């Protein structure tokens, strides 16, 4: 056993190290430790309350645009991520993440482009520094019309 001591500001700190059979050592220290714990509410729930197709002219129809109206409960989100996948929700086709500013009520519209007609799985995740919440839906896109 070895010992070390140091004096600073009239206080004494003593550390002891003890040999261990596995070749390491243990350090024993005495003293007090304090910390604070903050409990945060977080984002509790996300709901897609409406999906609206954006009408475009034939010359603009290379991608179909859909607006998703989303609400949430709990704390206000600071970012939104949208994952567009195949109808089984297994193979991702695109992922888009954006910062958002929500001031007093969690009601926002998210516009996303779809590469062509078909059925897609959409996952919308709202997040902040401490939490995330997810809503999923299947959407059928028919060249500028969605159901």
UniProtKB/TrEMBL annotation:
Residue runs in coiled coils: none
Top-level taxon of origin: Eukaryota
Signal sequence, start to end: none
One Pfam family it belongs to: PKAT_KLD
Any one annotated GO CC term: plasma membrane
A GO molecular function held by the record: integrin binding
Cited InterPro entries: PKAT, PKAT_KLD
Domain PKAT KLD: 71-121
GO biological process terms, semicolon-separated: cell adhesion
PANTHER family, sorted: MELANOCYTE PROTEIN PMEL 17-RELATED, TRANSMEMBRANE GLYCOPROTEIN NMB
Protein name as annotated: QNR71 protein
Annotated organism of origin: Atlantisia rogersi
